[in-house]
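4.2 Preliminary Data

To establish feasibility before requesting continued support, the project team ran the inverse folding procedure on a target of 439 residues. The structure was first converted into the token representation described in Section 3, and no sequence information of any kind was made available to the design step. The complete token record follows.
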């Protein structure tokens, strides 16, 4: 079947236009697609890195405030007398108690770090003294607002953070086991252990919590050695301070860089010490000796109710359930794979959360020895990929619009361009019919 020259010419114009559009569109799609996704991933990673740095800075502020309490000479002198002479009299502790009360000044204090400290206890360095393993000094801020603790007294009444028998939340005061390590023939270094974490001079610190009072307010505690100011290893006792965790909550609640579906999450280990097994972490010398499938994690801060569609089992709950960290690939990646970046920051543009919902995330680890937390900035995958969908719509619209225009333009153009040839062929046919030309 012979195709008329007009249709051939129109098809050729359409084919040339289609090839040109295909080349430009594929190049634009490939370049812009990768560029947009890289920008979105970098944005998520940078946001997570900044939030991790904020958390590390806020934890350092709280730790430094507690260290200042541990360095007070009046309390140290009272502990020296208790350790050397067994002096457990009221006179021995009178000045130290006043000093401790002044340190736990609460919201009336002008210093941010001091205002966060709400309650505390001082424990002896070992259980050999007159007071055994029990605290020698207790203090609660006098200016403390009423904080209802999430448990009841044995008689069923409400319990508030206070100096009462049940006003010291046991979840935030570690049950330390004391032991000593010989340094030489005449001296031994005092140490303590709690759930596998060893506390010793000079800088080890145990963080417990955050312990949620409700969906918007939590407490945490720091426990550290009280070290003789004249020695780097002479432990005089152990200090536990309960603090307001608002500095952590403020980072989680901040909406900067999150878009309309963004959420800041902090995933910690499902234990009381806030440390994952060392063999799991990329920075550990024995990395790889712990199987991530055997490790559980949980969200350390309650998730808002409006994200129920992404985290149906964890949202709005004060005590969110734990989950295998392998169910959230970004957590495993952050903990086990070296990203060669500050805070091991990175991002996954297409992944899922612990509930299997499609998300895009940035992650980072706070630069602190206090905790092994993974900060995750999570966005709905549809929001992150929206520029890609918009680009696809633009390209497809342009392609079909141009091809439609070419079809409308190619037919009259081919008709006009092929007219002389068609007329010449018509003349030739007439001439042949009259014997003027022979085929």
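Position-by-position output of the design step:
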């Amino acid at each position: 079947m012979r195709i008329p020259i007009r249709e051939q010419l129109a098809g050729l114009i359409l084919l040339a236009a289609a090839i040109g559009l295909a080349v430009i569109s594929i190049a634009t799609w490939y370049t812009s697609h990768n560029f947009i996704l890289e920008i979105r991933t970098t944005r998520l990673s940078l946001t997570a890195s900044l939030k991790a740095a904020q958390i590390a800075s806020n934890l350092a502020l709280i730790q430094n405030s507690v260290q200042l309490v541990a360095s007070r000479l009046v309390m140290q002198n009272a502990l020296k007398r208790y350790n050397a002479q067994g002096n457990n009299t009221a006179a021995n502790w009178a000045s130290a108690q006043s000093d401790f009360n002044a340190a736990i000044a609460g919201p009336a204090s002008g210093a941010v770090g001091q205002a966060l400290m709400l309650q505390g206890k001082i424990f002896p360095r070992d259980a050999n003294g007159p007071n055994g393993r029990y605290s020698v000094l207790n203090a609660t801020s006098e200016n403390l607002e009423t904080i209802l603790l999430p448990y009841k007294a044995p008689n069923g009444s409400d319990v508030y953070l206070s100096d009462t028998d049940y006003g010291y939340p046991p979840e935030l005061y570690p049950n330390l086991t004391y032991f000593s390590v010989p340094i030489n023939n005449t001296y031994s270094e005092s140490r303590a252990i709690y759930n596998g974490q060893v506390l010793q001079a000079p800088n080890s610190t145990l963080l417990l919590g955050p312990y949620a009072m409700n969906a918007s307010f939590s407490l945490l505690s720091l426990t550290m050695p009280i070290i003789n100011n004249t020695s780097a290893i002479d432990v005089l006792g152990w200090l536990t301070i309960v603090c307001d965790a608002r500095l952590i909550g403020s980072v989680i609640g901040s909406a900067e860089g999150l878009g309309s579906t963004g959420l800041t999450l902090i995933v910690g280990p499902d234990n009381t010490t806030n440390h994952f097994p060392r063999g799991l972490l990329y920075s550990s010398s024995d990395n790889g000796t712990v199987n991530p499938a055997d490790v559980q994690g949980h969200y350390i801060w309650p998730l808002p109710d409006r994200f129920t569609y992404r985290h149906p089992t964890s949202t709005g709950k004060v005590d969110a359930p734990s989950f295998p960290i392998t169910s959230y690939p970004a957590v495993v990646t952050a903990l086990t794979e070296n990203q060669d970046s500050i805070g091991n920051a990175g991002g996954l543009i297409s992944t899922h959360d612990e509930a299997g919902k499609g998300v895009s995330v940035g992650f980072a680890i706070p630069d602190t020895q206090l905790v092994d937390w993974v900060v995750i900035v999570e966005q709905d995958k549809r929001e992150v990929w929206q520029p890609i969908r918009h680009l696809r719509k633009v390209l497809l619209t342009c392609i079909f619009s141009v091809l439609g225009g070419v079809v409308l333009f190619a037919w009259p153009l081919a008709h006009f361009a092929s007219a002389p040839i068609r007329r010449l062929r018509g003349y030739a046919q007439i001439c042949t019919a009259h014997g003027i030309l022979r085929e």
